[in-house]
TrEMBL record:
UniProt organism field: Sphingosinicella rhizophila
Modified residues (4-aspartylphosphate): D604
Record's protein name: histidine kinase
Domain Response regulatory: 554-664
Keyword Phosphoprotein included in the entry's annotation: yes
This protein's UniProt keywords: Coiled coil, Phosphoprotein
Length: 668
């Protein structure tokens, strides 16, 4: 297959000028096209080679797609042909129910609704071609793999797992040295099905039956079972086997591995215990905090609690970071394995995420969360949330949104404001169990001198959430924004929602006011300081795929917490990077004094003797171009350049990879 065929676009658009338009657009970016007159011709041309295909919905609606379906089904393992389907309606299942049929038929399909902007088609075409090129690269790697079995055997003997190769009929004819070292057997002991003697006799019939199914169907084999060691004891192993096929799709051999997972299971048990301990410590700290609040004067208790929660957030995040990081690594390594193991890891991650959410809410109440404020069009933000709010409050509640003309922009963190609005709407929903009306009002308000003890004079945008629910009496209303105070049942809320909103409003320079009458409803007024003009909100970060920055990096990692430092180092090494560790800023500068041969520095903020901000300034003096990533669970950023890249604890490996890649790419 020539590159002209392998990277061309096939176009099947029988009606109108779609074919001419698409051909012209693709020609402008250097992509050759071949226009097909029918599905059968498309199938024939696919057999010859193509980079991707552009098809209209009407071309498939009544056509016989048996041949196309058969071609797609017999694609080699490296191939997943990209399709761009031009539709007359929305491509999603909600707006276009027939999309499910096309998705099932084509598999790797991108829906593009007409009419569309030319740059959209060009962007999707480029993405599809890049994906196809990666498939060609995968094909080359697979072909190389078929020709390098000897190298594989050499490698297999060097890895700490049992490896084996079997004939197409399942007869195992080679094991790596790990098998003989673990079992204490010799090669002649494993001939003629000798592998069965190292299995638990109770499970052997199930293993044999499952292996027979894989031999018959060609499907991968995967199972967890105990293997007998030379010490006479059984240890659990995760066994996987994959068929190796020739270019005609025929199985030529089976490659298998068996990995000792006893250490992993021990680690899971330890992680579960630590997660439980963390929850107990959270409950203990919460109880202590509530006891302290009871002893404080009404005017002091909210501020005092803010100081407490901000302080413990750093400790909690340091505890969560190694737990979350190790769980993330385990999920990546074993998440696709045994269902029970995957469930246990996922459950532990869920517990860590719950604790992370709790800490974030505490920081929100304490007014110590890191905000990314900008001048924002709050009316547009609310309008963009309309569908989300409607689905959250349910069909029994009528949603109304009203706004005054000439609304000012507001200085807010759009992401945090969205969360606050959603919290207010959900609270209103819970106050209307039998249905009712929820109104969101936006208007401009002026605060004059001495008019409000909580707000500075000036222009504000007032966002009001009004419900017709059960309302609150004065006692409940007075305590509504207290942390952990809730009128909901156990398990139905943390009691931190209004506290977080109150803290956010104060941190933005505004305020939250509540008014309510039993039986008539509740009104929540969120006062937001006006900005001079609107600007685009900063994009919401998207979790990057777990990948290195394109090459192994030499990284200096600085953190005084050994558990955090060790966990972070393991995540970086798992990404393929080389890591040098330092326990504080002084030690880091000593390392840099000996050599500056590093690609990036990753440092904690809160450290004794020298914090991350001071270390950053010192490093910039030594090497002004050095990429630096600051990691913190909670800190006062007043003495730090706001442009310094930051990553908040706890984080997952994908977050770390994303931020690291960003600072390295920016420094190039």
């Amino acid at each position: 297959m020539t590159w002209q065929l392998s990277e061309r676009a096939l176009i099947l658009t029988p009606l109108g000028r779609d074919a001419a338009v698409a051909t012209s657009m693709l020609a402008e970016i250097g992509v050759a096209s071949h226009v097909c007159a029918s599905v059968d011709e498309l199938t024939t041309e696919l057999e010859r080679g193509a980079g991707f295909a552009v098809i209209t919905e009407e071309a498939l609606r009544t056509a016989n797609v048996t041949g196309l379906s058969a071609w797609l089904g017999r694609q080699p393992e490296w191939s997943d042909m990209p399709f761009i389907l031009l539709t007359s309606r929305g491509g999603g299942l909600e707006r276009n129910p027939t999309a499910a049929r096309y998705l099932e038929l084509l598999g790797n399909v991108t829906f593009l609704e007409r009419p569309f902007h030319p740059t959209t088609l060009v962007s999707i075409a480029r993405s599809s071609l890049r994906a196809r090129r990666r498939q060609y690269e995968a094909r080359t790697r697979l072909e190389t793999l078929h020709e390098s079995e000897a190298q594989f055997r050499s490698l297999a003997n060097s890895i700490p797992a049992i490896c084996w190769i079997a004939q197409p009929d399942g007869h195992v004819y080679w094991y790596n040295q790990q098998m003989y070292d673990y079992t204490g057997t010799a090669p002649e002991d494993m001939r003629d099905g000798g592998w069965q003697r190292i299995h638990d006799p109770k499970l052997l019939p199930e293993i044999v039956e499952k292996w027979a199914v894989s031999l018959e169907t060609g499907q991968p084999f995967e199972m967890v079972f105990p293997l007998l060691g030379k010490d006479g004891k059984y240890r659990p192993f995760l066994a996987r086997s994959q068929a190796v096929r020739d270019t005609d799709g025929q199985i030529v051999r089976w490659l298998g591995t068996a990995t000792d997972i006893q250490t992993q299971r021990d680690a899971e048990a330890a992680l579960e215990e630590r997660a439980s301990e963390l929850e107990r410590r959270v409950e203990q700290r919460t109880a202590e905090r509530e006891a302290a609040l009871a002893q404080l004067h009404e005017a002091q208790k909210l501020e005092t609690l803010g100081q407490l929660t901000g302080g413990v957030a750093h400790d909690f995040n340091n505890l969560l970071t190694p737990i979350t990081g190790v769980l993330d690594l385990l999920q990546r390594k074993y998440g696709d394995g045994d269902e029970r193991e995957a469930r246990l890891i996922a459950g532990a991650l869920q517990s860590a995420d719950r604790a992370k959410t709790l800490v974030q809410r505490l920081l929100g109440f304490a007014r110590r969360q890191a905000l990314q404020t900008c001048a924002s069009d709050v009316a547009a933000l609310v309008e963009g949330m309309r569908e989300l709010i409607a689905s959250s409050i349910g069909p029994t509640i009528e949603l109304q949104v009203s706004q005054s003309p000439d609304l000012p922009s507001a200085m807010v963190d759009p992401n945090q404001l969205e969360l606050a609005i959603l919290n207010l709407c959900v609270n209103a929903r819970d106050a209307m169990p039998d249905g009712g009306s929820l109104t969101i009002e936006l208007d401009r308000a002026m605060i004059g001198p001495d008019e409000s003890p909580k707000l500075n004079p000036g222009t504000y945008l007032r966002l009001s959430v009004i419900d017709t629910g059960i309302g609150m009496n004065q006692d409940i209303l007075r305590r509504a924004i207290e942390p952990f105070f809730s009128t909901k049942g156990i398990g139905k809320g943390t009691g931190l929602g209004l506290s977080m909103i109150h803290g956010l409003a104060g941190q933005l320079g505004g305020d939250l006011e509540l008014s309510s009458t039993p039986g008539e409803g509740t009104r929540a007024d969120l006062w937001l300081p006006a900005a001079e003009r609107a600007q685009a909100a900063p994009p919401t970060p998207v979790a990057a795929a777990v990948a290195a920055a394109g090459r192994p990096l030499r990284i200096l990692l600085v953190d005084d917490e050994e558990l955090v430092r060790t966990g972070t180092a393991e995540m970086l090494r798992d990404l393929g990077h080389h890591v040098t560790e330092a326990s504080n800023g002084v030690e880091a500068l000593e390392v840099l004094g000996r050599t500056t041969d590093f690609d990036a520095v990753v440092t904690d903020y809160m450290m004794p003797r020298m914090n991350g901000a001071e270390l950053t300034r010192q490093i910039e003096g030594l090497d002004p171009g050095m990429p630096i990533l600051l990691i913190t669970g909670y800190a006062d950023y007043s003495n730090l350049d706001p442009k310094t890249p930051r990553l908040t604890k706890p984080f997952r490996q994908a977050d770390l990879a994303h931020h690291l890649n960003a600072i390295v790419e920016k420094a190039r």
